Amino acid sequence: MSYVKYLFVLIIFAFIISSGIHIFSKGFLLTRDSRTEKRQCDKFYVKLDENYCISDSDNKKACSNQNVFEIVSNISSSAENLCFEKKSKVIIVLIDALKFEFGVFNEKLNDPLPYQNKLPIIHELLKKHPDNSRFMKFIADPPTTTLQRLKGITTGSLPTFIDMGSNFATPEINEDNIIDQMVANNLTVVFAGDNTWTELFPKRFKRSYAYPSFNIHDLDSVDNAIMKILPTELKKPDWDVIITHFLGVDHCGHKHGALHHEMSRKLTEMNDMIKMLAESIDEDTTLFVFGDHGMTLPSGDHGGATSDETDALLFAYSKKKFVDGHLGHDDDFMQQIDLTPTLSTILGIPIPFSNLGTINFKLLPDVSYKGIKRHELLSMHLWHNAKQIKNYFSTYSDEHKDIFAHEDLDRINTKFEIFELRISTIFNEEAFKSVSKDLRLTLDSMLELCRNIWINFNPQLMVQGMLLSFLGIFVLFIIIYNIPVSEFSNIFTKKLLVYQAWASVIAVNIGYVMHENFGWDNKIIAALFLGSICHVLFFGYIIIKNWTTIVESMMSADKFINLMSRMSFAFSIAVFFSNSFIVQEQYILCFLLIVQIIHALHEYRKAASFVDMKKLKITGLFQTTSSKVVIVAIITIGLLRMSQMFFKCREEQGNCWDFLANTENVAKVKDGNMKVFPVIILAIFVTIVRAFLKANGNLTGYSPHVILMKFGPTVSVVAACGYLVLSQKQMTRPIASFVHLDTLAWIVYGMFIIELIIFVISPLLVYILPRRDGSFSLSDASNAIPELYRHMKQVINDQTANKSQTPVVYGLATVYSSVFLAFGTVLSIVLALLLGIDVCNGFVIILFVGSGILFIFSILRYESSSSIEECFHPSFSLIVTWYLLYSYGFYSTSHQPTISQIDWNAAFVGRTANFDHSNILSAILVLLSTFNSNVVLLILYPLLVIGPFMIYALWPNMPIKSDKKAKEDTALNYRKISLNDDSESNKDMKSVSRGEINLHENENIFMTSVFKVGCQFLLLQGTKVFASMIACTILCRHLMVWKIFAPRFIYEGIATYISFVAIVLGFVLVMRINRSVKSLINKLIL
Amino acid sequence: MYWISTTERVKLNYAMTTVAAIVVYTFFVQFVPQKLWLSVLFFIVGECLKVFIVQKLYKLDTTNNMEGVLKRRRNNKVMESLKFGFVMSLTVFFFAFICIILGAPALEKYLETFTLSALLTGITLFPISLFIGVSGTISILMTESFDLSNVTAQAFLKLLKRNAYLVIFGAFIGSVVFPLDWDRPWQIYPIPNIVGAVTGQMLGSFYCLVETMVKHKLGKKQH
């Protein structure tokens, strides 16, 4: 009988749910490719005689004798790459969360609120010098969090959640930005304040005074430190730009809210500071005071998109006059991204490549150059800006064909051609005003286009994705839980599946070709959607066909079974709906796991009547099965608690520095000693597995896999340990050459590859003792498990009696599990190597905990099952526990679902000497190390089915059930031994467990059980990721969506893909082993 | 005159006294970490009183089917009370152990852990032990097949057992609020668990009240 159809069904369900995730993420995760191009421009000087000089980017000065008029008369071609001289120096005072209302002065207020009328200096300066000061609303793009805002202000682009191509490991900005441009153009930048800046722009500032911003309860220390530095810095002559970032107001908002009296104190301090600056700046300096975002009233939070949060304040003051208001915008508000080109223009540097903002002329100091009229100067600036935006827009749309609609692109191109003519024909200020107005409208429409693709969700795709996942999960649930296991081979007929495959292929093609007719923009999404829907329809047909069975089993099902496991599961997916639960998820999972184990103990107590009071003896207490279970449970729980040592914390947990480990400014606190202890644990782990295999007789003989398992893991672990120990100090002080280190890593990889190959060729770890006539030495038997030992004795007895030809096979009792263990061990060593020395023990702990759980639940299942079908199928609580364990493994191996905390080191294991720059290989290595527990535990999931048979093969003498119960159970005949059908002679072995040969004899039930368990894992994982999708949809305007919910969804989505692959792989392994076992048994019987 | 059966009266009596005790408790409870031991004291005294009242009024017979096995010597009061104290403190340590493996800080909050586990012992195992004695309690824990021969006593024991389950469940559910970042004073470690435990006990009482009433009504209809 072929089980390929089960495999096929597994893959289809995985496909449906995965395409749901994919479609959802296309609608939810807004991505933007960050461009790394830097813009350059030629410096343009006007000499006294109205001739000009141009120095290009290499600082080569080329002066011509031509008049400036040459340039000015040909703006459309000349202005694009020209930068003027610096108009003034700039002081930027960024006051975090300076809301617009804070600056509005209302004299009539008798009883001002704590935040009102606290910045009178703005009002004073506006009144006294209306031409020298500007005050306006400064509108931010959501998300209104400081980091995103800083990115927006410095690059002039719309920040999205994932800026593809940017470096995840550090928050450093790699897009073109004004700070980089300042440095490139030899301007001196001084910084004081929030250390977010130095993380974004490391090593850019001539002098930087950065202070940590974590402590929200600290209102003053950062501000006071800046205030101490500022006056001395002002006096120094060398700076061109000073940037200060005050945190007090923001922290006050977070801690006390906007209506607290502390707020008025902080604002008054800010007022004094602005006053001091306004008095002390010289003629040649422009002062900008602004907030990066607002805050809600009265709670003082920010992050969302309400006008309270987006409307910040901008105040500019200069001793020089600004350009007349009527030449620029008449509005009293500006977009935050408009500040980028404005600052660039003031400082005479090129506008950053990906800027989308337009220059606000009201904020330009009115500097004139000889021979250039004001409207000419402004139109040159404007054209420089417009060409830059057009350039970015074209580059981006060339790269991503489908992103913008063709009509829009055509319209913009036509308009620009017209503007190119118009810009050169400006002859006076009135003409400039009209051209400028039209050009601005076009630029705004381009900004709007970008905003649509980078800021707005696509609800259609999100709904479709959720719908698909839901349908997949729902159909899977109905089929798996309501149709008896024995029916599976009848309902999934080969014919139906073939039809299904062809139908879906047709549906995929229809979707791919005719996607526009169905309203999709994207071919692949249409194909995925239609293909999946087609599969769902076919499964729907199966449901309808088996409707009576399903309804009957639904009606008869006990509504309250597995209450505890269901609650644990429900709780583990409810985590997605609260940010604080996501932040603390590691502890929650640990808690649930321990609860599951305790509950299993409780169940065991019920099933096996813990201690027989009538026969209780203290001496025998530690030999009973119950005491073994309790001891294993305590050790397992202890290990789980220990694994918390390997947690990495995240920013939101408070008092946490782990998330900064990647950036340079936190010195790594490391003890000088090499870490050796983890390596020992790793070696012990491998030794235990080997001892287990040896005790079961799986390491006897000369088959290729046996030989590999004899030496492979040992070699592999030695190489891995060598690598782990040596690479600790390699970075600081090379010990071995990189090539040698890499060789060690490649030995481990190679061993895994050999294992894979051998697995395909001949997976079994058994040894058939050659039949001899009457004489063979018993000394070999020291390796065999006791039952086989006895079996051999039996054989000898038989041989002396009637010369029967009973075959002797080593390792037959663990024929399935041994292969899984072997494979799992080699894979685990690879993963431990990838995880590195600090973390690999967390992984080993997970493996130990996994075996502990397997032990407890296997015994529980064996004790409580009343028929062989029941014993074959793992209980729901075991599946939930396994699921919790692999979810927990992510955290216990020092991972956190935040974008900045991806562990990139794994990508370089074994590739340091000559890095091949293969992104696919790097991605595989990083994914393997990040989702290690998903990979290992789900590939090994068939062990859950094999479990009881494995345990009782290992300890055949384990006391089995209390006598009373054993008598009641008439269905216990599956314990009887019947290797050969004429087992009448083996009556004395009746009580001995036969190990995993049972599995082969009930091959059909076994494979169906494995299939069902696989489906259950698909179901659990699918439900989990579906919950994550719902949470993201409900909370898509939540404050923390980009910081907590969306990264969690991404991690869960990737984990789901990987889990599905692992489940399918696990099933393939079982199929392969099963086939080999079948041929082995056939060989034996013949 | 007694149209309510004794079993029902025992149940109602216990449920009413429990609810009354919790109502009294709400009047002077202070969720200040330093004063939590007062709650423990209150509940231990309360349980004593409740079981005492029930025993005084109905004089339930607590002979059980394990009589022969347990070899109880009722006459030795000193030994019995020593054993009682030993088992109770063992239970406290057991609960503390469970608290710690489920995530309570092992060392720095040991007083709180102790308070919580004392409270849990006080409203789960303590009344049961008061009612049927220590040996009976142990055999309940170890085997499933412990029965009292008196029907009313058995019903009362069942009620106590269910209450104990609900209390533990409530304390377990109480942990839900810990991860929330609300920074409320009542989120400090043992308070949600204590509230959960007390809530569990109260729910148990209410359930018992309703159950008794419904069953009584059904019983009357049948007649």
TrEMBL record, chain A:
InterPro entries: Alkaline_phosphatase_core_sf, Phosphodiest/P_Trfase, PIG-O_N, PIGG/GPI7_C, PIGO/GPI13
One GO CC annotation: endoplasmic reticulum membrane
GO BP of this protein: GPI anchor biosynthetic process
Protein localization: Endoplasmic reticulum membrane
Gene3D superfamilies per UniProt: Alkaline Phosphatase, subunit A (3.40.720.10)
Pathway assigned in UniProt: Glycolipid biosynthesis; glycosylphosphatidylinositol-anchor biosynthesis
UniProt entry tagged with the keyword Ion transport: no
Residue ranges of domain GPI ethanolamine phosphate transferase 2 C-terminal in the record: 873-1067
Domain of life: Eukaryota
Bilayer disposition of the protein: Multi-pass membrane protein
GO terms, molecular function: mannose-ethanolamine phosphotransferase activity
Main location group: endoplasmic reticulum
Pfam families: Phosphodiest, PIGO_PIGG
UniProt entry keywords in alphabetical sequence: Endoplasmic reticulum, Glycoprotein, GPI-anchor biosynthesis, Membrane, Transferase, Transmembrane, Transmembrane helix
TM annotation in the entry: 6-29, 461-484, 496-513, 525-544, 569-595, 616-640, 676-693, 705-726, 746-769, 808-837, 843-860, 872-891, 935-955, 1054-1073
Family to which this protein belongs: Belongs to the PIGG/PIGN/PIGO family. PIGO subfamily.
Name recorded for this polypeptide: GPI ethanolamine phosphate transferase 2 C-terminal domain-containing protein
The organism of origin for this protein: Chironomus riparius
From TrEMBL, chain B:
InterPro entries with a match to the protein in the record: GPI_biosynthesis_protein_Pig-F
Major subcellular site: endoplasmic reticulum
Biological pathway: Glycolipid biosynthesis; glycosylphosphatidylinositol-anchor biosynthesis
GO biological process terms, semicolon-separated: GPI anchor biosynthetic process
Intracellular or extracellular location(s): Endoplasmic reticulum membrane
Keyword line: Endoplasmic reticulum, GPI-anchor biosynthesis, Membrane, Transmembrane, Transmembrane helix
Transmembrane segments: 12-30, 36-54, 81-104, 116-142, 163-182, 188-210
GO annotation, cellular component aspect: endoplasmic reticulum membrane
UniProt topology in membrane: Multi-pass membrane protein
Superkingdom of the source species: Eukaryota
Protein name: Phosphatidylinositol-glycan biosynthesis class F protein
Organism: Chironomus riparius
Taxonomy of the source species: Eukaryota, Metazoa, Ecdysozoa, Arthropoda, Hexapoda
